[in-house]
Each structure stands twice: as C-alpha cells, then as structure tokens.
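Lecture 7 notes: from sequence to structure.
We start with the chain below.
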Amino acid sequence: MVTLSLPRIEERLREHRPTLLDSRPFQRQAAVAAILRESEDGPEVLFIKRAQRPGDIWSGHMAFPGGHRDPGDQDLGATAMRETQEEIGLDLSRHARLLGHLDHMDITPIGTQRRMLVVPYVFALEGELPRLQPNYEVAAVLWGSVPGMFHGHTLTRREMQVRGASMPFPGYDVQNELVWGLTYRMLHRFFSVLDPGWQGADD
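Predicted structure tokens for the same chain:
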C-alpha cells in the first residue's frame, strides 16, 4: 500500500517529470495551488468553495485557489501564488514550500470555445496556518482528506446543473460539498503521480 505522508508526496513529486505543453496555441493560461498539510489522519488538501457570482462558469464550485495569469506574473507558479494570496490571504512564499507541479492540462471550459492551459502546483504548509482572509470570490475554505479521496472512501456521485440540465457526476465528498469536474480531474493526476498504478473511478 502506498504511504501517504508529506515526505513521500514530496519524494514522488521530485521524481515526477510532468508533461509540458507549448503555451502559444492557448488563448488563456491559468494556475492553481493544491496546498497540503499534515493531520492526525494523514495529509489534507485545501479547497475553496467559490462564491455564487453571475457570469462565473465555476460559480459555487469547489476548487483549488487559483486563476488566470496576469501580464505581470513571472510564470504560472507566480500566478498560483498571487491568486492564493488574493483569494484567501495566504502568502505561500512565507508559509509554504513548493513541492512541484503536475502535468499541463489542455481544457475547454463548459460553455466556452476557448482553449485554456492550466497548471496545478503543489505546496506544503510550513509551521502554523495563519488566519485566512477569504475575499469576495470565496464562500468558504475547507480541508479534504487525501487518503480518503485516494482510497475512494469519499467517492460519491451527485446530480449537478450543467447548461441548465441536471446530470450525474462523480466526485469526492468534502464536508458535504462535492469536488467534481476539473478539480476532480486534477486530483486524479495527482494520485497517479503518487502511485503510477493507481486506479480511480471513470471520469
């Protein structure tokens, strides 16, 4: 059985050689931060529940902190750190260390025809978690059990609204909220790095 501890996760990410994509064909670029911490029951990862906002295609969804790259961002790692600071008031340069990033993802968000390059970066908290200060984009901050998701203990399926229709989607239950869609796919990329033989539910 794979050991799910922060040292083991750091080792696996250090060994991982992520797939990189040429950014030129993409109309937009974005990055997210998967922020880990140790707990008595194994590592946990931080999620945000996005606030209900008209025009936001991810309104009300569970997600990792993150967003679109700004012209002033040095790279997508800087995007992930800036967005985390803006969304929940956590300065990753002071309170965490970067463990690595996952494969580049080529996505076309539902309801759009724009290709987007998305890169998930993985961080580990160091020291005590400072007081978080979510902004108007964030309704709540929640922690999910990495072992619970990795081993399928929190796997579920719920009806979700997509383009005005209700459809069943797989996801992970985190404090009665559903982690599904793009973030669900990112978690599976992460789990495949931790264990190349990992087999999860069909997307």
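Points to note: Helices lie at 6-15, 76-88, 92-95, 146-150, 181-194. The mean pLDDT is 93.
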